[in-house]
What does this fold into?
Amino acid sequence: MLRFSLVLLLLLITVPASACFGPKLYLGTPAGEDGELLFHLVAIYVKEKTGVESLRVELTAGQTAESLLQKNEVDLAFHPAASQNWSAVLQLEEQLWLLTGPRPTEDLQFTTVPRTLSKLQRLLAAGALTELRRQVANGILPAKAVRGHFMERGWI
It folds into this structure.
């Protein structure tokens, strides 16, 4: 009985710790609710399709997507215009470009992410971002709005 209890205790201790490991991408977004919506738009789809988790990094006053990419503080970041220095892996309604740093394209554990975002680009219809923003303005949480959008269409 003591041996069984010890094994059970060890299993319980190690299970939560293993959930903390794994590849994570750092995604730069604008501050606020719109930034949260943009984060979930990318993070949920990427997680469902590749298993890669994302962590949100809010851009503060004076920070730009390009400066954070240059400093390797983020792997992907939303920017209000195309960039000469950074490739875009997603464009949302000619309003926002998701720029990528080297990690998503060069690190083997992330090489499926740009292809996944390319597929998301093809799936997103014109007006999708506007519709999601409307839902959030009406009180739906950003993650719920995005997940619902994806599930209604059978994307995840």
